[in-house]
Amino acid sequence: MALKQWLLSGLLASTCLVSIAAAGPIENYSPVTAERLKNPEPGNWMHYRRTYDGQGYSPLDQINTSNVKSLTPVWTFSTGVVEGHEAPPIINNGVMFVATPMGQVIALNAKTGDEYWRYKRQLPEDLFQLHPTNRGVGLWEDKLYLATTDDHLVALDAKTGKVVWDTKVQDYKKGQYLTLMPLVVDGKVIVGGSGGEFGVRGYIVAYDANTGKELWRTFTIPGEGEPGNETWKGDDWKTGGAPAWMTGTYDVDTRTIYWGTGNAAPWPGETHPGDNLYSTSVLALDPDSGKMKSYFQYHQNDSWDWDEVDAPMLIDLQRDGRSIKSLIHPGRNAIFWVLERKPEGIKYVAGWPFVYTDVWKGIEPSGKPIVDPVHKPGIGKRVEFCPSLWGGKDWPSAAYSQKTGLVYVPANENFCGGFTGEKVPLVAGQLWLGTKPEDIGLTPRPGATHFGELQAWDPATGKKAWSHNFPKSHLFGSVTATAGDLILVGGTNDRMFRAFHAKTGELLWEQKTNSGIMGMPIAYEVDGTQYIAVQSGWGVDAQRIQDALVGKVPGLENNVPQGGVVWVFAVKK
Amino acid sequence: MILTALATGACLASSRSSVAEEDLLGSNERPQKADVLVFAEGDRAGEVIKPQDLKAGGPPVRAWPKDPKTSVVRKGSRLNEVLVVKLDPAELDEETRSRAAGGVVAYSVICVHTGCPITAWVKAASGDKDVFKCVCHNSEFDPRQSGQVVFGPAPRRLPALPLVAEDGPLTVAAAFVGKVGAQQGR
Ligand code: FES
C-alpha cells in the first residue's frame, strides 16, 4: 500500500473508535496522581489488585463477618457483552470504570449504577481472539488506559470517554494481543503482550501516559549477544513465547516492577532445548528504563503450558526469626513459592506443592524444581501429568490479608491432563502448540472427591490454615480479602458469589448471579457506605474447563449461561 | 448521538472503499462464483481440488478459493479460507444438499464465536457423528445440517460456501451464505 493510502486508512480507522455518551460527562473527576497511586484511599480501587503490591486486600471493614449475611444487591448493570468478564471494576472517588471483553469501557456512577459514557472499540473483522477478555483500565491524571485484543493501547478521557491517543503495540495478525490491565507508574503506562500459543517473542513495553510515545521495550527472551540467549538453541528464541499478559506488581521503595512471564513455545520442551530464559519466570525491572535487575525462573524448559504470568504479591513476612521482603506466588506449576527481594536480586526461600503433582520430585536448594521425566511431555508420545494443563492455579489471583497473615489461593485439585507432542511448522498468526489441540486431555483423578479448592496458607510457616472444597466445580476466579475478615470469591459453575470467614473458612454468605464469576471482586466506599462489586460473566478458560469435564464428572452443571453483569452489594440497613 | 451515528456510517463507507483500493488483485475479496478451490496446506498446497481428491466421511481439508481467470489465490484475508468435506449425500439436509457438489460441502474455517480457525473433526459431544470442532472454546458445528451449532458458545451457524462440480474441479456456485467471521459480542 502506498504511504499516502496507508496514512489515509490509519486516519479513517481512528474515526471508527466510538464513544457513546449517555448521561456524562463526569463532573468533578478526581485526577490520579503518583501519590494517590502509591497510597490509594481505603475507599478506592485504582490498581488491578487495589495496591501496587498486588495483595488484593481492602482495608474497609464496614461489611464484616457479623453483618455479611445481610449483604444485598443494590444495583446491577448489564454490559450487553458475552464471554469472560475478568476485570475488577476500577473505582476513583465515586466513579466506576468497567472493562469488558470486546474492548468496551463503561463509566458508571458507583453509587447509583447510572451510566456516564461508554467506549466501544470496533474490532477488526478478521481478529482471532483466543482469549476474548480484558482485565481492566489503568488510571493517570484525567485519563484511562485500555489494552485491546487487536493489540492497541488506547488512552481515554476519563470524564467523557473520548479517545486521547491510540497506539499500535504490535500486529494482531501475527497472534499478538493484549488482555491485561495496564500498570501505571509515575506517568508511564506499562503493558505486556499475550500470545504464547502463537510463537511470539514476549515483551514488556512502557508508553508516555500523555502522548502514547513508546519509552522502552524489554523482550522477555534475550536477543543474540544478551545474557540468557544461550539458554535457547539456534533461532528458537525468536518464537519462544514467554508472553507477559498479566499486570505486574511494583515495589515503591526500591522502584522495581515485578512481572510474571508465560510458558515457552511450543509446548513440548524437546522442541526448544535449554532452560529457556526468561520464560515461566518473574522479572524485576527498572520502571524508568525497562532494564532487568534480576529474575527467578519457576521452572525450566516448560513442557506443560504452565505459564507463570500472575505477578507475585509483595508481602513483608516474619519467617524463621527474621523479616523478609517476600515475593509470594502460588504457581501454575503447583508449587507455592516464597521468594525474597534482596538487594542483590531475587532469592529462593521456600516452596511446596499446594495441590497434588506427579511432575516434581523435589526442589534444589537454589529453587530449581527437579522434574520426573516420566511426566514430561515429549515428541511422539502421549504423556500424562498432574496437575492438568491449567495448573494448580491459573491466572486468577490469590489474595493476602494483612489481618490474618494468610494467603488465599483459588486452587484446582485432582485434575490431571496430557497430550501427545508433535513437531509442527509455525504459521504466523496461527496456533502453534506442538500438539493437536483436540488431543489435549483433562481427567479427574480416580476417586477425586472435589476439584475447586479455596485454600488459606500461612506463608511464614508453610502450613495450610483451612480449605473449602467444591465437589462439582473447578474454581476459576480471583480472590479478594478485606479488613472485615471476609474472603470474597466467585469462580464456580453454580454461578455463586461467596464470602468466607478469613480466619476459619466458614461459608458466611452466598448469592446466585446471572452467569459464572471470573471477575475480580472489589470493595469500595462512597459517601460513608461500603460496597462490594464484581462482574459476573462466564467464558474463556472457565468455560473451556467446564466443557472438557462434561460427561466426566457425574452431576456436573453443564450449562453456565454467558452474558456480563456488574453486581454491586451493600449491607441492608 | 446523531453525530456518532453519522461518524460510524462514514467510517463503514470509507473502510469499504479503502479495502477496494488496496485490493487490486482480488486476493482479499471473498470467494466468488466460478472460483475453484485449492489445497491450503500439505504436500499438495496450491493444487486445485477435485471431488475425487477427498475421502468420503472426512476428514475435511483446508482450502483457498482461486480466481481461475487471473490465477489469484484469495489468501489475502483469513476470512476467505474454507473447510471442505465429502459426506454421504443421504446424510445431508435439504438445504445443505442444495449447496453441495455431490456430497462435498464447504464452510468458512473461521469460527463464528471469536474467530479461531476450526481445526478438528471429532465425534460430537452428543451423538456418534463426526462434526467440525473449534478447539478454542469447544464449539461444534454439523456440516450435514447447514453448519448448525451443536455444542458450545458459538452463537450462529457456520457460513456455507455453495459448490458445484461438473466433471472437474470443485467450483464456487455463489457467495458465502451469511456473515463470515466472529461475533462482536454486543
Ligand atoms: S472461537 Fe471457536 S469456540 Fe470460540
Brief synopsis:
Chain A is built from three helices and 39 strands. Chain A has 573 residues and is mainly β.
Query: Which structural class matches the secondary elements of chain A?
Result: mainly beta
Q: Identify low-pLDDT runs of chain B.
A: 1-22
The averaged pLDDT of chain B comes out at 85
- What is the approximate shape of chain B? globular
Shape of chain A: globular
Oligomeric grouping of the chains = heterodimer
In the predicted model, the low-confidence regions of chain A spanning at least 5 consecutive residues are 1-16
Query: Helicity range of the residues of chain B?
Result: 10-25%
Please, what is the average pLDDT of chain A?
94
Please tally the helical runs of chain B, counting DSSP H or I stretches of 4 or more residues: 2
Helix content of chain A: under 10%
Which percent band covers the strand fraction of chain B?
15-25%
Strand order in the largest sheet of chain B: 1-2-3-4
Number of beta-strand segments of chain B? 10
Write up what this structure looks like.
- The complex is a heterodimer of chains A (about 575) and B (about 190).
- In chain A, the strands form ten sheets. Chain A has a five-stranded antiparallel beta sheet with strand order 1-7-6-5-4, with no helix packed on it. In chain A, strands 2-33-34-35-36 form a five-stranded mixed beta sheet, with no helix packed on it. In chain A, strands 3-39-38-37 form a four-stranded antiparallel beta sheet, with no helix packed on it.
- Chain A is built from three helices and 39 strands.
- By secondary structure, chain A is mainly beta.
- The model of chain A is unreliable at about 1-15 (pLDDT under 50).
- Chain A is globular.
- Chain B has about 190 residues and is α+β, with helices and mostly antiparallel strands.
- In chain B, about 15% of the residues lie in helices and about 20% in strands.
- Chain B has two helices and ten strands, in the order αβββαβββββββ.
- Chain B has helices at about 1-20, 95-100; strands at about 35-40, 60-65, 80-85, 105-110, 120-125, 130-135, 140, 150, 165, 170.
- A four-stranded antiparallel beta sheet of chain B has the order 1-2-3-4, with no helix packed on it. A four-stranded antiparallel beta sheet of chain B has the order 5-6-7-8, with no helix packed on it. In chain B, strands 9-10 form a two-stranded antiparallel sheet.
- Chain B is globular and about 45 Å long.
- Chain B starts with a helix and ends in a 14-residue tail after the last strand.
- The interface of A and B includes residues 120, 431, 437, 540 and 562 of A.
- The structure holds FE2/S2 (inorganic) cluster.
- FE2/S2 (inorganic) cluster binds near residues 111, 114 and 116 of chain B.
